[in-house]
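We treat protein structure as text, and this decision shapes the records that our systems exchange. Because each token names a local backbone shape, the row as a whole describes the fold. For reference, a complete record is included directly beneath this paragraph.
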Amino acid sequence: MFSKIVLFVCMVFLTTICHGQTDKRFSRQVGAETIIGPRNAPLDDGAKALISDDNEEGVRLTLIGLEVAVGKREHEAALSNLCAGYVKLGKYSDALKYCNLLLARNDKHWRGYNNRAVVYIQIKQWDKAHQDLTRGEELNPGARTLKVARSMYMDAVYPVREEVEVDDRQNKSNDDSQS
């Protein structure tokens, strides 16, 4: 179950880091090149730290990135990464706080529903987890991370019991006949 959480969180970070891709632009001078990095370096570095499982540092940098975030996209990326980062740290009340802030800003942010569903799964609030998964699946039906979260939910709510039956009668009758 823990490995599914780690896989899920890593997938979320891989999709949100795309906003920090570097952009090369050439000036009017022949051969001169200016490389422009991410606009919000702490947010970008925080996402990279979270992907590499340096969760404390990732959350710290992302909090700084949230303070200097400009525009809706950066704010939402920061809130989403904070929610996921706190999930990775096992700090579910903090994770829930940032998921709720994200969804209050944008109720169509499927990753927010996905992340909050994982929080609800971890704190065993099954009805809320199911509602968030359903809403996320309505917004993005084919999302792989939603499928992973749904399987976590199903494993927790409807665990598969092993139905292995050992029939010792066969071995016992063989043992009796050899005596």
